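go over whats below:
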Amino acid sequence: MFADHTEAALDPFFYGRWDEAARDHHAASRPDNPDAVAHFGAEGAFDPPATRAALAAFRSPVLLLAGEFDLNSPPRSVAAFAGLFPDATLVVQEGAGHCPWVDDADRFVELVSAFLA
């Protein structure tokens, strides 16, 4: 029971604002396949050297967009990840958390559109 209350207390920290839209998004995005979730990060699921080599070989432009207040993927970590690609653009969306399209959809569209232009 404590874990459920603790998890719920952390939910707002994934968003730049905890309004009705953020609460609705969070409720709708809860994983509903526990077996898939269990296997996602299972032992052997990732091969960091192979992943780094694949990213270094990826030749298309890549946009990495981080929310300013994202605790899951903080801008500093996303910047380090961007360094693994040969042609990456890092953008930090001000005022956003882990779901910048929920926190400020107009700004998100503006940033992504600018990259795609």
Remarks:
- The chain is about 50% helix and 10% strand.
